[in-house]
Design a protein that fits this description.
single chain; 438 residues; alpha+beta; Four Helix Bundle (Hemerythrin (Met), subunit A); 3 domains; nine-stranded mixed β-sheet; six-stranded mixed β-sheet; 12 helices; 26% strand
Length: 438
């Protein structure tokens, strides 16, 4: 197929179209154009005088979603003011005929006029590379008509990794890139909503730029909402939620002031260290995240908190202090009952198990009957529902505490729970505006 521009003809030259295997089946172009390998070449002939000006070639990259455009004698084409129309027809052919969503062009980094032309088309710098001692820049562009649809499909972990690594490499102010978080924890459940957490060691003179001028976020996709947290004067956390479902956390750390903060996580992996500033680190392990065996004093303290907070919740219920009830009851569950259940699970795994932040992976390890009983301790919206949960909690707590006490050889005070339970019933039976406590 020959192409036309205002001043040139692009004459087809031995174009190759190769089918690729997909699960053992050869696909036709009609069935799926995006599985086609592209290798198209045209001679560029100026209409006036039939002068041969070189060639243009289109080749698909291994991801089969990107086509790279190569121009022969691009300096001559720029001098003759023909590059703009050739770019236009090439990009249009890739997007609208081949239906490939992404184009890439590699140019020498000193070709400033050509780079400005690429930018005028909406192309963005992807990365800089060294070829034969020279510096080259790769510019990419995504078809605007498909971009909005693509954001709805979550990027693969490999794509995210490449985007973050490319960003860190291209940014002169970023010297260190480390990955931390759940994706390094082998005990963490795998699901599509897992976050990506990176730490970026930044030069002191660049630190404020990343904190105050946040246009760099737009390079990673369509933002839904961003949460910015100041951890210290020299550490800021940006938590970015994108429309395609991706959640990306960047923790910027000033290398001059807070380099030691890079290693505050036990789970970490060095990805990039431009200046070789970091010593080798041991293989990441979640061992420090494991549930620790309580001492008898810690065991008794948790039980004491449970009984005490039950009374506090009961008093707030009587006064109809709804916000206080919610806060106290949440503490009662998460710091009391849930703590007991974490010990129950961990002791059966020899205290070598990580249950995640706030013991969020309990469900994976508890018997279903116990887990369902635990869920019933989460109250309905009514005051009566919360009272029912308080009364049921006593039996549930006693059963778990007895088992833990026997296993660890600790003492369990049965009478304490009984006394508190009776006291709760007395509060519950009080009339409104009571003047005496019976």
């Amino acid at each position: 197929m020959n192409l036309q521009t205002e001043h040139c003809q692009l004459i087809e030259k031995n174009n190759e179209e190769k089918f690729v295997l997909n699960h053992g089946q050869i696909l036709s172009l009609e069935k799926d154009k995006k599985t086609w390998e592209i290798n198209f070449k045209w001679e560029i002939v100026k209409k006036e005088g039939n002068q041969n000006l070189g060639s243009v070639q289109l080749k698909s990259l291994p991801d089969l979603m990107t086509v790279e455009i190569y121009y022969q004698h691009e300096e001559t084409l720029m001098e003759m003011n023909l590059m703009e129309e050739l770019l236009s027809v090439s990009i249009d052919y890739v997007f609208n005929v081949l239906n490939i969503p992404r184009v890439l062009i590699t140019v020498r980094s000193i070709e400033f006029e050509l780079i400005q032309l690429l930018k005028s088309f909406g192309m963005k710098l992807d990365e800089k590379i060294m070829i034969g001692g020279g510096v080259f820049s790769k510019y990419v562009m995504t078809n605007p008509s498909t971009q909005s649809n693509q954001t709805l499909k979550m990027r693969s972990s490999h794509c995210v990794y490449e985007q973050v690594l490319r960003f860190a490499k291209c940014e002169e102010g970023i010297r260190i890139l480390m990955q931390t978080g759940l994706r390094l924890n082998r005990d963490a459940p795998v699901d599509i909503l897992r976050d990506y957490h990176y730490r970026l060691g930044v030069r002191d003179n660049s630190f404020k730029l990343y904190i105050e001028k946040t246009s760099w976020m737009n390079d990673f996709g369509e933002l839904l909402v961003v949460k910015k947290t100041k951890i210290s004067d020299f550490i800021y956390l940006f938590q970015m939620q994108f429309q395609d479902g991706l959640r990306l956390d960047f923790e910027f750390i000033s290398l001059k002031e807070s380099r030691e903060a890079l290693f505050s996580e036990t789970l970490c992996r060095i990805i990039l260290d431009k200046d070789q500033l970091l010593p080798p680190i041991a293989q990441s392990s979640s061992r420090n995240q494991c549930v620790k065996q309580p001492t008898e004093e810690e065991f008794q303290a948790v039980l004491n908190d449970i009984w005490w907070n039950q009374i506090e919740v009961a008093k707030a219920l009587y006064r109809e202090e709804v916000t206080l009830v919610g806060s106290l009851y949440e503490t009662l569950l998460t710091e009391g009952v849930t703590k007991l259940l974490s010990w129950k699970v961990a002791m059966k795994h020899e205290w070598k198990i990580d249950l995640g932040r706030k013991n969020r992976w309990l469900k994976r390890y508890l018997p279903d009957t116990i887990y369902q009983e635990y869920l019933l301790l989460y109250p309905t919206k009514s005051y009566g529902g919360i009272w029912d949960c308080l009364f049921n909690m006593k039996t549930f707590v006693e059963r778990q505490a007895r088992e833990i006490a026997v296993f660890l050889g600790y003492v369990y005070d049965v009478e304490q729970g009984e006394r508190v339970s009776k006291f709760l019933h007395r509060i519950n039976s009080l009339p409104d505006n009571a003047s005496e406590f019976h």
